[in-house]
Design goal:
Chain lengths: ~550, ~130
């Protein structure tokens, strides 16, 4: 079998190149007793069909993974999404996670921050510091990363509409730490299209939002080559109730929209494509999820090749995964640990690059420190004890998995074609086509639970009287007042003339189709607040209201 | 049922998770209610105004972001201010058990938490509308 030409060429090219750059974690991998674990199992006879559909890891069409050695070389990044209350509180949680072996940070911002409101805005009532950390200005961002070296840690930030502003703050904090801008690593979510259909933190209408995103691609291409400029997210689409196929189709359709928008703006495909990242959901149908990840990877590679990308890095779909929050139950919460374990396993078997595991108590509130530790330990058990990281894409070649991978890909292609025929993603958002599809799937799923066709352990079967209430994390209501105080102090102590000048430069750049990242950086450096910066853009771009 | 009850489903605050709100809205429609859904990101005052304008029998609020203690009572207050305290308010979302009593004292009639069935929710709306 190892005599086949495509296997030989993979060994000599992709594999050899990878091994010389990143040695594997061990010289040999073996089972208890000494039997060696193969790096990659392949069929006894390799035909054209295998090469075209399944192929080799690290080689087009990447069905088996984006790296030739996958987790034998390096484990996935264990990246727990966290943040609540004030910057100082969240900083403590990040240091706790880093102390316990998390390998990347993932910042959760509160809703006012995500929607570009300062903590004293009327719509921020009750929301400050609740689902994430409140950031009003660079001053908060400095506290958030105090004592965390930004040249060593990679940081993912779940921020979309105002992504440019929060990213600018991050850049400035790094500069103040003495870290060269080109060295910072991480990801900004920066994926506005799914906000209109699933997550809801939009500010501006689609077209100016796409302009901001393209501007970020352009600036990062020149200044931060290691930063992922977008994380094109199916996660929230799935949470909103979509099926696996819809998750793939809507996400990749959004991806194509970003690519085409950037191409229209004159950016070069092979220059920006390598910094596009993805984010998927790992739900409970384990084998379907594994097939979904493999199908998405293959389909994206084909799409990018068709769009004219020439470099392998441009064809690769690299993705983060989070286990499915909507599957967590408020009943018998320890069962959630088991659900999360299986979902995390599907992500690893599907070849994820990084992973967040949910905590057992998240159907009740934000997770406690202890629950978060168990969630992280779940990943560590999968990584270090189960052996699934010791070989590449172990489910490949299963009749069931390959058939399902093919089916998900072809159904996603069909759905993407429908979106195209209906005028593309933006048109389908504006007329509600995508939202209706998701709603329909969500309702059907709930009906299955109601009728008992779909069993949720502890909810519609195997119920018990709950005995004890677990301790929950509560964000103190004083956080809001504290944050508002700090904001007022800031406004009294900064140079307000400078702030006004920077804001008006930003306004004219926005009005005149200028590039926006540099003016935003200037505003941020003067401690202009997030709300002030976004208000300028609101005045120029207008605000989006949903269809209801 | 003889009378067609009217219900407003509202999303107060900034939380964008409206899968639950939409599923409840659809279930109520399937059971003969007339349902108006506000869409996400509405202030308590906007929701109360819509409830009055639409002349509804009940308002259902959904929040998954932890802001329920501030926002649900604020809707009750806005309805009272508008002289519409006959409109019953019920709520649901990611709400710790300890908060339920507080919300009920503040005038929210029923609270539904994760795992509640559509049947329970529909029956509760039926009940509060009939008793009005």
């Amino acid at each position: 079998m190892t005599e086949h030409p495509s296997y030989t060429s993979w060994t000599e090219k992709e594999l050899a190149a990878s091994l010389s750059r990143f040695p594997e974690r061990y010289k040999t991998f073996y089972h208890h007793g000494g039997a060696e674990i193969p790096r990659l199992s392949v069929p006894t006879s390799i035909g054209q069909d295998y090469d075209e559909k399944i192929g080799f890891p690290g080689r087009y069409p990447f069905t088996r993974g984006v790296q030739p050695t996958m987790y034998r070389g390096r484990l996935w990044t264990m990246r727990q999404y966290a943040g609540f209350s004030t910057a100082a509180e969240s900083n403590k949680r990040y240091r706790y996670l880093l102390d316990h072996g998390t390998t990347g940070l993932s910042v959760a911002f509160d809703l006012p921050t995500q929607i570009g409101y300062d903590s004293d805005h009327a719509m921020a009532l009750g929301e400050v510091g609740k689902v994430g950390v409140a950031i009003d200005s660079l001053a908060d961002m400095e506290i958030l990363f105090e004592g965390i070296p930004l040249d060593k840690v990679s940081t993912s930030m779940t921020i979309n509409s105002p992504a440019m502003v929060l990213f600018a703050m991050y850049v400035v904090v790094a500069q103040k730490q003495g870290v060269a801008t080109e060295k910072i690593k991480g990801t900004i979510q920066n994926d506005i299209l799914k906000e209109y259909v699933a997550r809801g933190t939009y500010i501006f209408p689609p077209r100016p939002s796409l302009r901001l995103i393209t501007d970020i691609f352009r600036w990062c291409g020149k200044n931060t080559p290691l930063f992922n400029t977008i994380s094109i997210s199916g996660y929230h689409i799935r949470e909103a109730g979509s099926t696996a196929v819809q998750e793939v189709a809507f996400t990749l359709a959004n991806g194509v929209t970003y690519v085409k928008t950037a191409l229209e703006a004159g950016l070069e495909l092979d220059h920006f494509a390598r910094r596009l990242a993805f984010f998927f959901n790992a739900s409970s149908d384990l084998l379907e999820e594994v097939a979904k990840f493999r199908a998405a990877r293959r389909l994206w590679a084909r799409i990018m090749k068709d769009l004219g990308a020439n470099k392998p890095a441009s064809w690769m779909l690299r993705f983060h995964t989070q286990t499915a929050g909507n599957t967590l139950t408020a009943q018998q919460i320890d069962n959630n640990i088991v659900r999360v374990t299986l979902q995390a396993l599907s992500a690893v078997l599907g070849g994820t690059q990084s992973l967040h595991t949910n905590s057992r108590d998240e159907a009740l509130s934000l997770p406690t420190e202890e629950s978060v530790r168990t969630a992280l330990r779940t990943q560590q058990v999968i990584a270090y004890e189960t052996g699934v990281a010791n070989t590449v894409d172990p489910l490949a070649g299963s009749y069931f998995i390959e058939e399902l991978t093919d089916r998900i890909e072809s159904e996603a292609v069909e759905l993407m074609a429908k979106i195209d025929q209906a005028g593309g993603v933006v048109a389908c958002i504006e007329d509600g086509f995508i939202q209706r599809q998701i709603e329909h799937s969500a309702y059907a799923y709930q009906r299955e639970i109601e009728s008992g066709e779909r069993i949720i352990v502890g909810v519609n079967k195997f119920q018990v009287e709950e005995e004890s209430r677990p301790p929950l994390l509560r964000v103190s209501p004083e956080v809001e007042a504290e944050q508002v105080d700090r904001l007022q102090q800031l406004k009294a102590s900064r140079n307000n003339d400078q702030v006004d000048q920077c804001l008006s430069s930003l306004r004219s750049a926005a009005q005149n189709d200028g590039e926006l990242m540099e003016p935003v950086l200037a505003c941020v450096r003067e401690y202009a607040t997030l709300g002030e910066i976004c208000d300028v853009l609101r005045q120029v771009f207008g605000e989006y209201r949903d269809r209801q | 049922m003889s009378k067609k009850y009217r219900v407003l489903i509202g999303k107060p605050g900034l939380d964008g998770h409206d899968r639950g709100a939409k599923v409840i809205a659809q279930a109520l429609r399937d059971h003969g209610f007339e349902v108006i859904y506000t869409g996400i990101r509405r202030s308590p005052a906007e929701i109360a105004a819509a409830a009055v304008q639409e002349d509804v029998d009940a308002v259902g609020l959904s929040s998954l972001s932890g802001a329920h203690l501030r926002l649900f009572p604020a809707v009750v207050e806005e309805l009272a201010k508008a002289g519409a305290d006959d409109i019953v308010v019920v709520g649901g979302g990611v709400i710790p058990e300890d908060d339920i009593a507080t919300l009920k004292e503040a005038g929210v009639r029923e609270i539904f938490t994760p795992g509640a069935t559509l049947e329970d929710v529909v029956n509760a709306f039926q009940g509060v509308c009939e008793k009005k």
